[in-house]
Amino acid sequence: MSFRRDFISKPLFAFARGAMPAMSDTEREALEAGDVWWDADLFTGNPDWSKLLATAPAALTDEEKAFLNGPVDELCAMLDEWKINWEWRDLPPEAWAFIKQHKFFGMIIPKEFGGLGFSPYAHSEVVRKLSSRSLTAAVTVMVPNSLGPGELLMRFGTKEQQRQWLPRLADGRDIPCFGLTSPEAGSDAASMVDTGIICRGNFEGRDVIGLRLNWHKRYITLGPVATLLGLAFKAYDPDHLVGEQEELGITVALIPTHLPGVEIGRRHLPAMQVFQNGPNWGRDVFIPMDYIIGGQERLGEGWKMLMTALAAGRGISLPSLSAAGAAYAARTTGAYARIREQFGISIGKFEGIEEPLARIAGTAYLLDAARRLTCAALNQGHHPAVISGIMKLHATERMRTVIDDAMDIHGGKAVIDGPQNYMGSLYRAVPVGITVEGANILTRNLIVFGQGAIRAHPFLLDEMNALGEADRAKGLDAFDKAFWAHVGHSFKTMFRAWGRSWTGGLFAPAPDAGEATRFYRQLSRYASAFALCADMALLTLGGALKRKEMLSARFGDILSELYLLSAALKRWQDEGRQREDFAALEWCMASGFRTIENRFAEILANLPNRFVAVILKFLIQPFGAKVTGPSDRIVHQCAQLVLEPSAARDRLTADLSAVDDDGGIARLEKAFLLVTAAEDVAKQMRAARLHDWKEAVKKGVITRADGEKLQAAHEAVAKVIEVDDFAAEALSPIYRRGADVHQFFQELGEQRAAS
């Protein structure tokens, strides 16, 4: 007999068991998907920095490097994004053939099944490089290697299914897609009305038990060209052919698109992006049970399978595309701001330009740091569901901010479309990344903290499992153990958070990291405050916290910043503490700390239990939010990273596609190098108050060689700031009758007058 268990824990157990809201199967399966990693350390409130720094950086094998420098560069050379988007409305046939020939669709498929067997980091690097050349190509390649039939077969397929389908997917004989989203069910996949009724039927001359499927899916990438459709639907067994249960739940199956009843719809046009995307339907499509991924025993396990696959996939594809977009914006916008002059000086020297330019550079540093750290975890076999959600949400959101900043700095150059506009396609594509693989609003408000609080918290999941245990005695024992461990943890966290907050993190744990040591101390301080506030919110709100979406979102923002800033520090360490990059790290830290402190202030101002809110404010933020963000000095130094040629600029924007011939990027890079090389000559001209280099040569101010260098720079800049224009008949079919535009309108007026 235990006095604590029987007289204290038992009534608490009974109360909590009755108060705990019911959890749906889909919620439980989503929570159980994947695993935890560094997010669990952050939730303890006392992260072990040695564990983070000991994590091996993501690295490529020689084979993976050869693929990036060979087939990936060759594919990039085939791609003209303007023609892809505005003339062909698709990848050119030779690109499709090349993608299949070199097994781009089989990067994640093991070699034993004919795939490339690449690591998550190699997958990420391929998507990143392709994204800097053509978003259409990047999306086309990344979808078969992300959530879809390939990954599901690898994880859950039977041996027979793997032998049959994986080699065909690897070499492109089959093009896959995955149908999840329905008109009635987007983020709420449990509401789908697509059905699979278990019945007897004829399949290829055999009388078998199978499923008769009816579905309507939309927004399906690669759907219009797919030969193998992965399908999510709800399975039912009304005649009890496989068991006593009628409603079996969400199930996933493979549907060859040539089967009778499968209808492939016409194409969608997502924000003027032309990657293959469209709807499809199934009307009384019959499949045998062995077309269920994993076989009959996987009936009803589809949601768990999808969530497990998504736990890794969301951490690779879209974050890679977003990191590429940020680096691309940093390289192009920094160069453009350097060569473009207004009022007689480079616009990069204006503080109004420096601020967004620093935001672009700092974000590029942060996103690629987080991408690399996440890939390092995936390379080690982790499937961190919460971190993947953080990555998808914040990578795409921050890419949106960065691209908006880049558009503002470029002005009309990025607004006027044409072959020389290197920003327009990326700008139009931003909403696609924001929307797919889980809408960002939902992810921020419900998923990051909601899932993280349960999965990553050191005790909460154990307590919930104990409360849900069918055997009450066993459940009480487990609850007693977890609950009192939680109580002890909470008291330690309270004193830790109080001490670190009141001392400004001065004595918080941190590794010896040179100039960056102080940043680790602040993150240790914020982690303890986060753990304390999260515990108090869970204690006072319980299950109601799930409905407090704005509070949940703020907690999620803090957790996200803690992870992203950890990644930035890890990058700084792994790259050898490059002094020239420190401005980018400082910008990341100052911006992140401002967000963290503001979110704490917002939580404390809105926590329903005002008594607890006052106590928490006294403990962790007695004087309110104090960090104001990057100083003007940091902004200036961070902006300079992309305004001059340097090793720091190259590290920030490494491994982007360099193939561009005489396109907009090539012209920009040429002008950038010429302008910076001629800077000293330009200064001499300004000092002499001369504008004509030939006159300056005559007066002996500069040499003829210097004058020609300056002239070459001016001509290169003129080529960059040019924008495209088009003949009227090239843009509109109205003018393609061969008549003069004025004649056309004259005839139109005459026709109207006559009528």
From TrEMBL:
Gene3D superfamilies noted in UniProt: Acyl-CoA dehydrogenase/oxidase, N-terminal domain (1.10.540.10), Butyryl-CoA Dehydrogenase, subunit A, domain 2 (2.40.110.10), Butyryl-CoA Dehydrogenase, subunit A, domain 3 (1.20.140.10)
Keywords in alphabetical order: FAD, Fatty acid metabolism, Flavoprotein, Lipid metabolism, Oxidoreductase
Residues in Acyl-CoA dehydrogenase/oxidase C-terminal domain copies: 300-447
Catalytic activity: a long-chain 2,3-saturated fatty acyl-CoA + oxidized [electron-transfer flavoprotein] + H(+) = a long-chain (2E)-enoyl-CoA + reduced [electron-transfer flavoprotein]; a medium-chain 2,3-saturated fatty acyl-CoA + oxidized [electron-transfer flavoprotein] + H(+) = a medium-chain (2E)-enoyl-CoA + reduced [electron-transfer flavoprotein]
MF annotations from Gene Ontology: flavin adenine dinucleotide binding; long-chain fatty acyl-CoA dehydrogenase activity; medium-chain fatty acyl-CoA dehydrogenase activity
Residue stretches spanning the membrane: none
Gene Ontology process terms (BP): fatty acid beta-oxidation using acyl-CoA dehydrogenase
InterPro entries: Acyl-CoA_dehydrogenase (IPR050741), Acyl-CoA_Oxase/DH_mid-dom_sf (IPR046373), AcylCo_DH-like_C (IPR036250), AcylCo_DH/oxidase_C (IPR009075), AcylCoA_DH/ox_N (IPR013786), AcylCoA_DH/ox_N_sf (IPR037069), AcylCoA_DH/oxidase_NM_dom_sf (IPR009100), FadE_C (IPR015396)
EC number of this enzyme: 1.3.8.7, 1.3.8.8
Domain of life: Bacteria
Keyword S-adenosyl-L-methionine: no
Required co-factors: FAD
Pathway assigned to this chain's UniProt record: Lipid metabolism; fatty acid beta-oxidation
Record family assignment: Belongs to the acyl-CoA dehydrogenase family.
PANTHER family hit by this protein: ACYL-COENZYME A DEHYDROGENASE, MEDIUM-CHAIN SPECIFIC ACYL-COA DEHYDROGENASE, MITOCHONDRIAL-RELATED
Protein name: Acyl-coenzyme A dehydrogenase
